[in-house]
């Protein structure tokens, strides 16, 4: 097939007519599909049902530290839960605080605390004229929602093939004391699937922030979420590198079992320096007497260790990979030769990041909605919901069944092609 940009007006018009008819046909089938959020499908949730059997009315509820998990205590988490989390997060148990069931909640609380009480004795952010966060784009909408909620000024940092544009990151962090943080998803990034290169991670550890209370929000949500276990990515461990550089306190690293066991009902953790652990704990002890230790124990009894977690994640991959392969196959088949789009082909995580021609993302997502398929709103992958070029669309293949996904992505390529022919015809007038 010819590139759309090389087609004559007549050829483009014919193509447009054909695609418009296809779109109408889809619209008339009354679809009701959802590829908007990175939610595990039911089959994935079933993988962890054994966790419901490891604790029962006859079970032993004592932790290895003598803590009765049914009662108060162990503020920062059970030792065995910290050991499991530390292994999965590639750090030491003493660096880990186990929270409840959402890493996003930890991030929100840390920013909230920084506003009201400051970071390790520094000026609380509410007293400052301006607080800025760097946001790697396209990125995770819920990160941006937190910083927007607190009125933090968000600065876009482009995601390059090997991670954020580090020249820009260094320029901001090392010179602007209003920059207090950066949102990072270092492995299988949401939504681009990018894996930060060794050099990028190293450059992060060598930052010399103008603000002493600057922290890297290192959200390693997809650390073990490989799609192909013969092709697993490993990145350098950021806490270790920062410690070696003499800046051990610069990172808050986050981990979660949300997409390992049960989304929203799992365990989540912060891994950070001992000084940060003490700082965070000083606030946490006011907020709670302790988190859900029964759930921590359930996770430890079921998952045992990182090796078992990896075996479990391979089962997730067996469900997810065919869905990602299907998306890749359809996008390549229907779009690769036309010169009107590009997209990511991730080795892990939950998303495919798709770029239309400039100015079409909102229109494509709107058409999908008209035809009964819900996608992440266009713009959501940028701070304030504003994609300056209106190009980026996040595809979340995990939740839909393979046949629904097949239909949704085929329709998607029809919408992309139709919008592109219209744009090119308009521009040629
Ligand atoms: C990068 C990233 N971080 C955090 C989360 C949410 O994690 P949790 O369920 O632990 O709050 C998600 C969920 O999609 C995510 O993509």
What does this structure look like?
Helix content is 42%, strand content 13%. It is α/β, with parallel strands linked by helices and 429 residues long. The protein folds into two domains: 160 residues, Aspartate Aminotransferase, domain 1; 244 residues, 3-Layer(aba) Sandwich (Aspartate Aminotransferase, domain 2), CATH 3.40.640. It has an eight-stranded mixed beta sheet with strand order 2-9-8-7-6-3-4-5, sandwiched between helices. It has a three-stranded antiparallel beta sheet with strand order 10-11-13. α1 packs antiparallel against α14 and α8 crosses α9. The structure holds pyridoxal-5'-phosphate. Pyridoxal-5'-phosphate binds next to α5.
């Amino acid at each position: 097939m010819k590139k759309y940009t090389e087609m004559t007006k007549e050829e483009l018009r014919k193509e447009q007519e054909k695609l418009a008819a296809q779109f109408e046909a889809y619209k008339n089938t009354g679809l009701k599909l959802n590829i908007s959020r990175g939610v595990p499908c039911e089959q994935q949730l079933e993988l962890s049902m054994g966790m419901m059997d490891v604790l029962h009315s006859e079970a032993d509820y004592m932790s290895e530290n003598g803590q009765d998990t049914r009662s108060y205590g162990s503020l920062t988490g059970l030792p065995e839960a910290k050991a499991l989390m530390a292994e999965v997060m590639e750090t030491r148990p003493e660096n880990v605080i186990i929270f409840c069931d959402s890493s996003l909640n930890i991030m929100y609380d840390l920013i909230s605390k920084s506003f009201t009480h400051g970071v390790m004795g520094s000026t609380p952010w509410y007293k400052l004229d301006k607080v800025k966060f760097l946001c790697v784009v396209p990125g995770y909408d819920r990160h941006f929602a937190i910083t927007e909620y607190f009125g933090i000024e968000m600065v876009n940092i482009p995601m390059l093939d090997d991670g954020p544009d580090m020249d820009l990151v260094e320029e901001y962090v090392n010179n602007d004391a209003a920059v207090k943080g950066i949102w990072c998803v270092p492995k299988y990034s949401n939504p681009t699937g990018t894996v930060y290169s060794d050099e990028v991670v190293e450059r992060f550890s060598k930052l010399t922030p103008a603000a002493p209370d600057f922290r890297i929000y290192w959200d390693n949500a997809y650390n073990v979420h490989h799609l192909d276990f013969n092709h697993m990515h490993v990145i350098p461990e950021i806490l270790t590198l920062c410690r070696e550089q003499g800046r051990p306190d610069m990172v808050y690293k986050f981990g979660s079992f949300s997409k390992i066991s049960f989304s929203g009902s799992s365990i989540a953790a912060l891994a950070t320096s001992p000084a940060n652990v003490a700082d965070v704990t000083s606030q946490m002890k006011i907020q709670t007497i302790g988190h859900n230790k029964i759930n921590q124990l359930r996770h430890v009894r079921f998952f045992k260790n990182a090796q078992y977690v990896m075996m479990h994640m391979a089962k997730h991959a067996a469900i997810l990979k065919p869905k990602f392969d299907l998306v890749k196959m359809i996008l390549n088949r229907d779009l690769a030769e036309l010169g009107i789009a590009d997209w990511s082909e991730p080795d892990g995580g939950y998303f495919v990041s798709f770029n239309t021609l400039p100015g079409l993302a909102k229109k494509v997502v709107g058409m999908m909605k008209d035809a009964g398929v819900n996608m992440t709103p266009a713009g959501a992958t940028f701070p304030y919901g504003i994609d300056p070029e209106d190009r980026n669309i996040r595809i979340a293949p995990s939740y839909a069944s393979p046949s629904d996904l097949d239909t949704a992505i085929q329709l998607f390529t029809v919408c992309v092609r139709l919008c592109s022919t219209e744009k090119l015809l308009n521009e040629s007038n």
